[in-house]
Design goal:
Structural class: alpha/beta
Number of strands: 12
Distance between the termini: 31 Å
Number of helices: 12
Strand order of the largest sheet: 3-2-1-4-5-6-10
Helix content: 40-55%
Order of helices and strands: EHEEHEHHEHEEHEEHEEHEHHHH
Largest sheet: 7 strands, parallel
Strand content: 15-25%
Length: 359
Amino acid sequence: MRTYLITGGAGFIGSNYIHYMFGKYGDEIRIINVDKLTYAGNLENLKDIENRENYTFIRADICDKEAIREIFAQNDIDRVVHFAAESHVDRSIRNPEVFVQTNVLGTAVMLNAAREAWEKEDGTYPGDKKFLHVSTDEVYGSLPEGEGYFYETTPYSPHSPYSSSKAGSDMLVKAYMDTYHFPANITNCSNNYGPYQFPEKLIPLIINNALQGKKLPVYGDGKNVRDWLYVEDHAKAIDMVQEKGRLFETYNVGGHNEKQNIEIVEIILDTLREMLPDDDPRKAHVSRDLITYVEDRKGHDRRYAIAPDKIKAEIGWEPETMFKEGIKKTIRWFFENEEWMKNVTSGDYQKYYDAMYKV
């Protein structure tokens, strides 16, 4: 049975990846989920799989060298998928040091622990050991409107403390691949959306606020462009890179869904009105009148757009979920999981660990 160590598996993308992997492989794999459970880590994301015999949750900080070494010492880890990161740009502008600590130092700890566990006396590694570092398109900086795409060869030009810390972690992984021939890959992905996303991010924030008749804050002129990818498509890409990707390579993962932020807001409002029954009182206040333009974010990149040509050519992955379909699936999930949203917005989700593990 292959053993996967997932860092940050209680977060948005990590929990979706764990669901995807159990959905695909069932009892053929074992997953160890290591998460510090910061504000963005939510064990309620994994309630339906927490009692599986082939799943283990460990509360630990990836910056804790001894804790991470102990996990490798006690388990024969075959694959590492490293999601754990501070990821919200606004938070990074307010508190950059936390992002450097987690994203750079934490990645160094993970790399060192895996290297110590896997490296043989002759400096080589067993063929089945692989480390996948999950990164972002934001490391590439900003593109002019309507011109060009990010490729794996695009020079890094990060502008926020978040993207700079992720660029630093990417460079560490590249250094380990070059210096130690460490068996790793890097994926740089565009904006994800879907179930379990913490409501500080654009799409769940707009859904939640609109349903409550609250203002919908839009930065600047609302014309900043992002490339959106449904999170399950990202999970599939990560699995395919681990199975078919060439070692030491970087793969860009993009959705071919470029949209301005204001377009996203308008599509969500239109879709909510379409999906809400006429007798639902919330339908009356789902309106474009809620849109409120606010002062632009500092250092706000104008446009991100990824070219996933390499991953399609080498591995055969391409996005399967078009945005109109994905946003309906996302809204439907939020309709069906209102208690989850209530717990997240009230902070009650943070009590789940204590109740579950009786600490």
